[in-house]
């Protein structure tokens, strides 16, 4: 049988937890908000302030600022960064496998071998494509 | 499953064969792999095999096989017609073809999914290569723009879809579509979480197929993307998304029909009007195709609004006919090869190259739904199936077909005109390659005699 429902039904949300359950979360958010706003508003007003040309400069950690930060960066940096993330994430998958090595038996080993195989294929592709060569 | 494995290996092999820098070798190997996949699917049709049947995530049933076969045919045609463009960048030829095959892999996963996880995975595998391919012309800012636009809006839609799946899981406690159906049948009271989830999933789907009001990405992306990719998006991506769409809604959400039917009816009407009315004013050919594809999504949505036993087959047939016409027109667009992609550049095509002109006219008439072409039978099936249940909707659809005929015929007139004597628009040369002629030949045969498919079933 087809049940009819309408958009009005959406208004009476039948959530599994009661509204009271969320009061601690609301309180916590209020505290967080109050802390952030409070520090931002009161800290500059309460503390003593001394300003000078040297102190207001952008880099006051010992090295003179040189040039603009917004210059074009070689796209190779991004390619290498993305590849790094990709292969780094692969390593993360090994950890749960290593923990469950005994329980997963041969089937688990096969799955991991296939996984590594695909990643290796990708790595060979990257190498052959010359994405890791810095100078061309 | 076997077909999926063959397809995946084909894509991998294609990528690696590319290092040999022999485009013809790459092409023949990839097409061989695609034909092998099709053969595996046909074997599956006659002998449902038990290969890896313990895995329940995908199921190659008759529905999935029909949709997959069409997707494979379209991919082969697009690789053929775009080969000239792929070949021009020798170091990327294999990447282009490989990415298209990976995307096809996603489409096949999408039409054969059995649980929401595989569905999501299929959608991602389908979309991500297309994000890349849309930006394949790296020196063209329009192409990069379309890639970025598609990626950002597409990622957003995927987020909404995942959110919807999470809500649905919260309401039903399962990812499997048959278990979701079971749950809705047995539940005494359906949690409103399920309705919210359904609406989220619906919006993500409407985005993927480019239905109003989630269509704004499609003209820009279709316009900027390289022509073969535009054809792929219109033919294969739409096929995959629609296949998954109708499967999900007829199985998992069949009990909630009364809830989503009114929304979808309204959206179908809106989509038809937006597509057709916007198409009238277009001067660029690919933008015209984009709006025409929006209009065709509107007609296709009618199969979902009026669910009958024939809906899936009607939808399949309609997308089949639509794909052939679109691929033919995209191929013609590549032959005309106007830098600014003006419709005006088609002027004189009928005289300069009668065969190409003929195919273009047939394809436009097929899109308009003129008998005895395949597009007519597609529309006829959908409208005839729906008219008893929802005559008002069909009246609106017929009105829209009328609007559609106007701009399709206008383009036909441009093609049949004499080449311009004024030197304002320089005449293109209309260079064709044998592969493109093969594609055009297959498309025109399919459009002329595709109606015969109806006698089979």
Automatic annotation (TrEMBL), chain B:
Biological processes annotated in GO: ATP synthesis coupled electron transport
Reaction(s) catalysed by this chain's protein: a quinone + NADH + 5 H(+)(in) = a quinol + NAD(+) + 4 H(+)(out)
Assigned EC number: 7.1.1.-
GO CC list: endomembrane system; plasma membrane
Primary location class: membrane
UniProt KW Membrane keyword: yes
TM region positions: 62-81, 93-111, 117-136, 148-170, 190-211, 232-253, 259-277, 289-309, 315-335, 355-374, 394-416, 437-456
Location in or out of the cell: Cell membrane; Endomembrane system; Membrane
Entry's family note: Belongs to the complex I subunit 2 family.
PANTHER family (alphabetical): NADH DEHYDROGENASE (PTHR22773)
Function comment: NDH-1 shuttles electrons from NADH, via FMN and iron-sulfur (Fe-S) centers, to quinones in the respiratory chain. The immediate electron acceptor for the enzyme in this species is believed to be a menaquinone. Couples the redox reaction to proton translocation (for every two electrons transferred, four hydrogen ions are translocated across the cytoplasmic membrane), and thus conserves the redox energy in a proton gradient.
NCBIfam families reported for this sequence: NDH_I_N (TIGR01770)
Name the record gives this protein: NADH-quinone oxidoreductase subunit N
């Amino acid at each position: 049988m087809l049940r009819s429902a309408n958009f009005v039904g959406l208004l009476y949300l039948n959530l599994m937890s009661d509204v009271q359950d969320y009061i601690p979360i609301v309180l916590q958010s209020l505290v967080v908000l109050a802390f952030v706003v409070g520090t931002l508003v009161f800290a500059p007003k309460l503390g003593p302030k001394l300003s000078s040309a040297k102190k207001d400069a952008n880099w006051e950690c010992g090295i003179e600022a040189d040039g603009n930060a917004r210059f074009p960066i070689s796209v190779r940096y991004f390619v290498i960064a993305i590849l790094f993330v990709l292969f780094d994430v692969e390593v993360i998958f090994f950890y749960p496998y290593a923990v469950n090595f005994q329980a997963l038996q041969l089937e688990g080993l096969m799955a991991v071998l296939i996984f590594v195989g695909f990643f290796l294929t990708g790595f060979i592709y990257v190498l052959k494509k010359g994405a890791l060569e810095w100078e061309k | 499953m076997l077909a999926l494995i063959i397809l995946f290996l084909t894509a991998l092999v294609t990528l690696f064969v590319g290092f040999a820098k022999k485009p013809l070798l790459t092409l023949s190997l990839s097409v061989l792999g695609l034909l092998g996949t099709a053969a595996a699917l046909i074997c599956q049709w006659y002998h449902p095999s038990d290969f890896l049947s313990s895995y329940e995530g995908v199921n190659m049933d008759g529905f999935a096989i029909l949709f997959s076969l069409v997707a494979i045919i379209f991919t082969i045609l697009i690789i053929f017609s775009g080969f000239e463009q792929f070949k021009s960048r020798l170091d990327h030829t294999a990447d282009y073809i490989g990415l298209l095959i990976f995307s096809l892999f996603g489409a096949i996963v999408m039409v054969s999914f059995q649980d929401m996880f595989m569905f999501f995975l299929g959608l991602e595998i389908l979309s991500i290569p297309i994000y890349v391919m849309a930006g394949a012309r790296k020196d063209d800012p329009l192409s990069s723009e379309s890639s970025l636009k598609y990626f950002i809006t597409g990622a957003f839609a995927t987020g909404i879809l995942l959110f919807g799946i999470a809500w649905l899981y919260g309401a039903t406690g399962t990812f499997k579509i048959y278990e979701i159906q079971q749950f809705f049948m047995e539940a005494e009271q359906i949690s409103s979480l399920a309705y919210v989830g359904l609406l989220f999933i619906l919006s993500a789907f409407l985005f993927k197929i480019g239905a109003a009001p989630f269509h704004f990405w499609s003209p820009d992306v279709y316009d900027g993307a390289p022509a073969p990719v535009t054809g792929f998006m219109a033919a294969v991506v739409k096929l995959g998304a629609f296949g998954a769409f109708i499967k999900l809604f007829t199985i998992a959400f069949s009990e909630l029909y009364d809830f989503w039917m009114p929304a979808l009816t309204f959206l179908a009407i809106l989509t038809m009007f937006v597509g057709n009315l916007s198409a009238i004013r277009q001067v660029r050919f690919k933008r015209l195709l984009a709006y025409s594809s929006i209009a065709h999504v509107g007609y296709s949505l009618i199969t979902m609004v009026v669910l009958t036993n024939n809906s899936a087959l009607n939808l399949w047939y309609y997308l089949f006919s639509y794909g052939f016409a679109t691929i033919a027109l995209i191929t013609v667009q590549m032959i005309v090869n106007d830098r600014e992609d003006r419709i005006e550049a088609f002027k004189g095509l009928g005289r300069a190259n009668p065969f190409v002109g003929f195919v273009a006219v047939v394809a436009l008439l097929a899109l308009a739904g003129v008998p005895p072409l395949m597009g007519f039978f597609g529309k006829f099936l959908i409208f005839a199936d729906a008219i008893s249940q929802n005559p008002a909707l069909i009246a609106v659809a017929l009105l829209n077909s009328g609007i559609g005929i106007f701009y399709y015929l206008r383009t036909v007139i441009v093609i049949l005109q004499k080449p311009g004597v004024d030197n304002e628009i320089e005449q293109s040369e209309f260079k064709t390659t044998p592969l493109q002629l093969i594609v055009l030949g297959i498309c025109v045969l399919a459009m002329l005699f595709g109606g015969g498919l109806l006698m089979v079933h």
